[in-house]
Specification:
By secondary structure, the protein is mostly beta strands. It has 1 helix and 6 strands; from the N terminus they run E-E-E-H-E-E-E. It has a 4-stranded mixed beta sheet with strand order 3-2-1-4, with helices on one face.
């Protein structure tokens, strides 16, 4: 399976409003939001995708797989 070769998001950091601000990958790298956006768009991180919000900004979300336990908001904090 190709996903095992790509990094995955394992933990997240949130700001005071609960918005995701940083991500920790399966190799231990810490990516800020813009770094994560770039890497997801390049296809180097599995299990997540980028979509355009109503306000036109790009946002990161987990792939829809029917498993709520791996939603980004449910991942451990670091």
């Amino acid at each position: 399976m190709a996903n095992t070769e790509r990094e995955q998001i394992m933990a997240v950091r949130k700001n005071g409003d609960g918005d995701l601000t940083s991500f920790q990958t399966s190799t231990g790298r810490i990516l800020d939001y813009s770094q994560a956006l770039n890497e997801i768009e390049a296809g180097s991180i599995a299990g997540v995708n980028v979509f355009k919000a109503k306000d036109g900004s790009k946002r990161i979300r987990g792939d829809a797989d029917g498993d709520p336990t791996n939603n980004l908001d449910q991942l451990p904090l670091f």
